[in-house]
Amino acid sequence: MKKDKNLLFLCSGNYYRSRFTEIYFNHFMKDGTWRANSRGLKVDRNISNVGAISKDTLNRLSKLQIIDASIHRMPIQLTYYDMLDADLIIAVKKAEHYKLLNERFPGWQDKVTYWHIDDLDCSPPNKTLDELTEHVSLLLQNF
Fold this sequence. Notes:
By secondary structure, this protein is of the alpha/beta class. 38% of the residues lie in helices and 14% in strands. It has a four-stranded parallel sheet. Helix 1 packs parallel to helix 5 (125-141). The radius of gyration is 14 Å and the shape is globular.
């Protein structure tokens, strides 16, 4: 039996960027050869997540008419086993996540593909979500 390949999206809080990429990717990955999950590098450090998922992410998914049951789950902290299970790991911003990966999971930081997409402190939601959409769309074309 053929095993689906696992794609793992990473961000800091698993609340906004990585959750959007996970849900958006899975919605359009129709052949089922890949399945995305997402995790956060700092969920356990009391970051300012309010609820299960960002309202900006929910609004964009609603606008795209993408419905997914995973929107109700709470953010999940990245573990070593999540990375071991992944066939491809993408962190959404190298400047933010490379150092965190090195601190928390030494040796893994160079096994990750990095994008350069800002969080809310540096970019408005529409711009960030547009960039994530473009990156995931390009990724889907290569699968």
